[in-house]
Amino acid sequence: MTARALVVAAGSAGVIWGMHLGGGDASAVTCQASNGHEVQRIQGTSGCGARSGAGSTASAQETGGGTAVAVADRGGRATAINQQPGSSALAGATTGGTSYSITTGPKALSVAQARAGGYSVAVGGVGGQAYAGAPGVQCSGGFAAAADSTTGRVCLKYGSINLRN
Questions:
Q1: DSSP 8-state code for residue 64
Q2: Distance of alpha carbon 152 from alpha carbon 3, whole angstroms
Q3: 31-58 residue pLDDT tens
């Protein structure tokens, strides 16, 4: 329980900190899709894509000169937010799952895959890679935090600190 609270707190702090950073020269692009629709946009060095199945919603926001992609199906809700150059946020959700994938630092990767009514959250900071999904969670690089409610797994990586359950 303590590890979960630590990951949530650190991830939230990383997201809040990242929201205050500038996105550089890249232009913001937003893609939103619901009930069987699909949207892709590319503007300068920024790109986003959102695809949804019936009864699902997908939202991707790219503000940093990288990529954000969200895909949802069978009642899922997926949100991907990239805020830094050279980074990618990928979110997928199915069967009533909810996923949030956020990158707050340059050269980051975050992947969240929710399923079976569960929640998955992945936050990639400076040079960090975060994964939350079916086999569990993985955090590596500079800063990364991930949690997956279906597997009950959480992790936090910050420099030499590497916590996981």
A1: S
A2: 11
A3: 999 999 999 999 999 999 999 999 999 9
